[in-house]
């Protein structure tokens, strides 16, 4: 059993929200490390993240399979088309882009670590557990998919 399994009780949107909250606190604690790039720069990653998440949710819905990351063993189909042809985790990539947008909005160098920490956590805990479950569920079809398509980009 994976030692990090107990961390799975926290859903990915809550992990992203927790990281976003920590980023906000860090920006307040370290005001001397502020940079003044235009806040409109946050718009690009924000819109890209929203777009990815909408397209991924639509693909999962059209395939009549679960959107919930807590129960990957309940996936009825392996979705490999649409945005899933480019990223195995487009929804998490969308979350990371949202966090990047938030970092740009906060205008603080240290908070740029927020999206990095989110990706590291997701790789180590959430995605690792999902990949084990999907390998058990779909076998060679899933491992072949993993060889063709990168985890993030």
Descriptive keywords:
elongated; Four Helix Bundle (Hemerythrin (Met), subunit A); 153 residues; 59% helix; 5 helices; mainly alpha
Radius of gyration: 17 Å
Shape: elongated
CATH architecture: Up-down Bundle
Number of helices: 5
Could you please say which CATH topology applies here? Four Helix Bundle (Hemerythrin (Met), subunit A)
Provide the residue-averaged pLDDT: 92
Largest sheet: none
**Total number of distinct structural domains:** 1
Give the total of beta strands.
0
Which structural class best describes the helix and strand composition?
A: mainly alpha
**Unreliable stretches, pLDDT < 50, 5 or more residues?**
none
Give the H and E element order: HHHHH
Regarding CATH, which class? Mainly Alpha
Distance between the termini: 28 Å
Strand content: under 5%
Helix content: 55-70%
Can you walk through the features of this model?
The structure is a single chain. With 153 residues, the chain is an all-alpha fold. The chain has one domain: Four Helix Bundle (Hemerythrin (Met), subunit A), CATH 1.20.120. 59% of the residues lie in helices and 0% in strands. It is built from 5 helices and no strands. The protein has helices spanning 12-29, 43-62, 90-106, 113-138, 140-148. Helix 3 runs antiparallel to helix 4 and helix 4 (113-138) packs antiparallel against helix 5 (140-148). The protein starts with 11 loop residues before the first helix and ends in a 5-residue tail after the last helix. The model has no long low-confidence stretch (mean pLDDT 92).
């Amino acid at each position: 059993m994976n030692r990090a399994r107990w961390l799975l009780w926290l859903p990915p949107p809550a992990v992203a929200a927790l990281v976003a909250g920590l980023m906000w606190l860090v920006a307040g604690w370290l005001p001397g490390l502020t940079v003044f790039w235009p806040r409109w720069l946050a718009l690009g990653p924000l819109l890209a993240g929203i777009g990815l998440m909408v397209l991924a949710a639509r693909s999962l819905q059209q395939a009549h399979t679960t959107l919930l990351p807590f129960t990957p063993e309940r996936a009825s189909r392996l979705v490999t088309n649409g945005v899933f042809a480019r990223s195995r985790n487009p929804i998490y990539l969308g979350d990371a882009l949202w966090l990047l947008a938030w970092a740009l909005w906060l205008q603080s160098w240290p908070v740029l670590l927020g999206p990095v920490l989110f990706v590291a956590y997701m790789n180590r805990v959430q995605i690792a557990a999902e990949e084990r479950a999907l390998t058990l569920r779909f076998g060679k079809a899933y491992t072949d998919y993993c060889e063709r398509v990168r985890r993030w980009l």
